[in-house]
Amino acid sequence: MNCRIGLTLCVLGVAAPASSAPDQSSAAGFPRGQSRPVTLTIESPDAGVYRGPLALTRWPLTLRLEARHGLALLEASETDTRREAIVLHDPDGCIDMRHFPLEQPGLPYEDCAGPDERYVEFTTERFNSFDREDERAGNPILRAALIDQPFEPGQLLNKPYLRDDRGRIQPVPRPQTGEALLDGYGYGADDDLPGLVILADIGGARVFDENFDLVPGVVRNLAGFVNTVSVELRTRAGGPAVTATMHVLAGLFEPLALFDLDVDAQGADFLRRLESGPVEAFGFLGPPADDDALFRELMSTYSPVDLTLRAVLVEGAAPTFVHDANGDGRYTERDLALMGYVLLSNEERLRLRLEVDALITETSQGRTCPPRSLIFRDLDGNGSSGEIGCSGSGGAARLRRVPR
């Protein structure tokens, strides 16, 4: 291993691939066998396995990105941030990383003709969250882009908004994104792993207008909700690996549902509009005994949820929005390629059956609240949604039933 000080460059003792001739079938220009030089796997929950049911919140999503033929690790410190990178390909055998970071080019490490390296940017980060300012590590441009955009009609925004019954425009409450806090957390490309794309066509990841009407053909990138990024200098396979972990919060992978409990129509107890679909009428199976039972019955109309989640790494900075470029109704690596992005990894797919997470009140003094992805709205135009807030005094113990 050869490490140079200053802008720290660690050259890994990794054997070069047997053939360094360019793969003519790969427009990316990596050596043969390395057209996608990063292997992406989903470590948790069980990768590629259909499991269920699983509580919608407080589960880990852990991604591992291994660069088996990675040549070097680079750490660059700028005035107000720290950036890192894995060198994936060096055609002339002379590592010259003056082109990283892009905002502040450094000096060449060797007497090279010029930089020709291909790399993936990352930055080790202890923890990002909506309620704490970022450590100022990572890509500052992407960190600033993760600040919630204010509402502007007709525009693609990195935050979903809805009109309430008084005509006011309100942000969708879950998942929480920190508003104007410079937290490196929210919808879009992650400042600590800029090339990561996480896709799920559900809830706030979908794009809809203030009236909950769907904007077709586009979803938001969820990679900005990654909390922790760490790196292994050298794995058993011989190269470095990056691990990205997301602690899934309420609302991130939950469908959005509008409910109206004050209904004039005969034969209907409540109305529901799920995921920008049509307004549908429902009747109670029996009179709910309390608010907890009421919320359970409302949520039972759309739980459990079958979720397909996809993750892939692209070169450079990933987009905030991914468009259905091939028109097949899905959001996949093919759409990213058609949008002009170079794919650095395989696309990994995870299918889960998720059960809406309802807290059960354990004592009569407990506090029962509707989940934040359950939103009350007047759907029949009679001026009232029958909204129910939190009930009880709070502070009581609560129990999560183990899903059957």
Describe this structure in words.
Helices cover 5% and strands 29% of the residues. The chain has 404 residues and is mainly beta. It folds into 2 domains: 2-255 and 302-357, no CATH class; 256-301 and 358-404, no CATH class. The strands form 7 sheets. It has a 5-stranded antiparallel sheet with strand order 1-2-6-7-8, with no helix packed on it. A 4-stranded antiparallel sheet has the order 3-5-15-14, with no helix packed on it. A 4-stranded mixed sheet has the order 4-21-19-11, with no helix packed on it. Strand 14 (228-232) and strand 15 form a beta hairpin. 37% of the residues are buried. The model is unreliable at 1-6, 14-26, 359-365 and 393-404 (pLDDT under 50).
Strand content: 25-35%
Segments where pLDDT lies below 50 for 5+ residues?
Answer: 1-6, 14-26, 359-365, 393-404
Order of helices and strands: EEEEEEEEHEEEEEEEEEEHEEHEEEE
Give me the number of helical elements: 3
Cα distance, first to last residue? 51 Å
| Helical percentage | under 10%
| Structural class label | mainly beta
How many β strands by DSSP? Answer: 24
Q: In which order are the strands of the major sheet placed?
A: 1-2-6-7-8
Kindly give the count of domains. 2
How many whole angstroms does the radius of gyration measure?
24 Å
Strand count, sense and barrel status of the largest sheet are:
5 strands, antiparallel
